[in-house]
Design goal:
The chain is mainly beta. It has one helix spanning 80-85, and strands at 5-12, 18-31, 34-37, 40-43, 46-52, 67-70, 89-97, 104-109. 5% of the residues lie in helices and 51% in strands. A 6-stranded antiparallel barrel has the order 1-2-5-8-7-6. A hairpin with a 2-residue loop joins strand 3 (34-37) and strand 4. The two termini are 26 Å apart. The model has no long low-confidence stretch (mean pLDDT 89).
C-alpha cells in the first residue's frame, strides 16, 4: 500500500524536551466540522493519521501529548509554543494495531 504523506512527530519527554522524527509513507486526514451544544456551536476539527509499522524506526512510539505536523518540518523546538506556531497539533490518542496484514498506528490529534 502506497501512502502519500510525510509527517514530523515530536516525542515529548518528561522534562518537556522534544525528539524529532520524520516519517514518510503515512496517511494524513483532516476533518473540519462543528459540534452543536446547548450554549451554541463550537469547532470540532481533528486530524487522523495512519502510520504503518514498516514506515517507522525500530524503537518508534507515539503517545498522547506528543506533537505532529504534516510535512518535513526542520524545527528543533524549545517549548510547546514553538510547535504550535508552526501548525503542529497535539496527539490526543495513539492506538497500536500490531496484527493483520497491515500492522500500524492510528493517531488522532487536535
Amino acid at each position: 500500500m502506497m501512502l502519500p504523506h510525510t509527517i514530523t512527530l515530536w516525542n515529548r519527554a518528561d522534562d518537556e524536551t522534544y525528539t524529532r522524527v520524520v516519517i514518510d509513507g503515512v496517511l494524513w486526514e483532516e476533518s473540519r466540522g462543528v459540534q452543536l451544544r446547548k450554549n451554541g456551536v463550537s469547532a470540532d476539527n481533528g486530524i487522523f493519521v495512519t502510520i504503518p509499522f514498516e514506515s517507522t524506526p525500530g524503537s518508534f512510539v507515539v503517545r498522547p501529548q506528543d506533537f505532529m505536523a504534516k510535512g518535513n518540518i526542520s524545527l528543533e523546538p524549545k517549548t510547546a509554543k514553538d510547535l504550535l506556531a508552526v501548525g503542529a497539533v497535539i496527539v490526543s490518542a495513539a492506538d497500536k494495531f500490531d496484527f493483520g496484514s497491515l500492522p500500524h498506528w492510528e493517531v488522532t490529534g487536535k
